[in-house]
Amino acid sequence: MAEKSGEEAPQLSSGETLSTTGRFSLTARILLVNMLPLVFLGGGLFYLDSYRTQLINERFKLARIEAQITAEALAGATRERQEALLVQIGKEQGMRLRMFDAEGRLWADSFALDEPAFTFDDITDDTWDQQFARWLDRTVDTIVAAETVTDYVEPESDTAEAWPELVRAREERVSQVNLYDWRDGTPVITAAAPVGLNGATLLTVRNAVDITATVRAARTTLVTAVLLVLFASAMLSLYLARTIVTPLRQLANAAVKVRQGREREVEVPRLPDRSDEIGLLARAVSDMTGALRQRIDAVDSFAADVAHEIKNPLASLRSAIESLPRVEDPKLRRELEQIATHDVRRIDRLVTEISDASRIDAEMSRATLERIDMADLIRSIIGSREYRAENQNHRIELTTRGFAANVLGVGARLERVIENLLDNAVSFSPPEAAIEVTVDNDGTCVSVTVCDSGPGIPEDSREKVFKRFHSVRPEQEDFGNHSGLGLAIARAIAEAHDGSLLAESRSDGAPGACLHLRLPAA
Fold it and tell me: DSSP string of 422-476?
């Protein structure tokens, strides 16, 4: 993976290019999603304004009917009877009733004849909740653009001309209704109706406090419920956000430290107590970080080993080349030239093996797997080696067992594994000794075992032979003919195929070692 130099990588902002929701934190989005429905529920406050209008309309109809019935009851009655009816109806209905004569002069008032049936609220001594209720009424009216209602003010004149509804009733000879607003926000409903045929008129005034009380009680209940649910929802949302955001921030901070590489050992929280997706993510990130750290350590170690292994033949080559101009003896010069040639070949072999080892992971990640019969592949390799005389007079015996030994893999890489195993067996086997190759398939796993007749591998060294540049060669073999990467490359290829490669002793008790390759069966 290539890294950009001189450019700071963006931190925790990749989601911002995917959606506009990336502009807001996860906590804010959780709060918004959980509280938005409650905000819509709070919109019921505005619905109550239409409910209030319906109540007033119904009260309009009632006020018109009451005025008409009262006017009919007053028509034809004596003055004493009319005054008694005004007082009685006013007390029973909680209204103020006024009678005007044909010239529009006030001649009877239920409040003047007896105790007032109601009194208007004096807002100067209202409590804070009443003040808040009036403020809420005004706020809702402003938001819903409610029609402005004329404030109710008692006229200074006692004539009918002071009341618009009375003027219309006298002119049109039909009942009229009007709406006013008292200072405390309660509606005042007036109704005017003609009384008899002599031109007299009746005016009723009602302060419909019950309408405002009903609407305000409903609003108070709704607001209280919405606020309580909003608070509970906010607390639950914050708790939910904390359980999600806090571990994500911990993982993000650990990932940033890993990327910056400022700390050698970064502890990525694994959250073992969480079995949900956050816990799975934490453990996956922790495992990924561990694998990345191992890969970095392996690369560092590999680079140091490469420098060390190349330095030795380079030093030998430099010494031989520097000595050549000072040597006059032809025989010694030929020996120095042979040493230089050997070192050059050794360096070339090392570079080739190192390049091959470093490309395994990258090539395997891009390779297309194909179905391969391991038995056929090994037969082909054995025939090619015999044709090239690479077996050094050793007899290679192939035995197949079980099902067809089919695996999914990269043919060239698996061929490299078998070649390395056979090279190792040929190197350690005595002259003309047989090399046994067994291929077995138990239905789930294909096993390839290569056994030689050499000195074997001590149990405490069976893992060391797979380390890079670890090379313990037979005494008869020329120095530098092997890089020490053969078995390390073979194991890397096996693991890239989800398999394994192990060193074992021979199962028959005879001297020698067995290299055991296991691959998943196709």
Answer: HHHHHHHSPTT-EEEEEEEE-SSEEEEEEE--SS---GGGTTGGGSTT-----TT
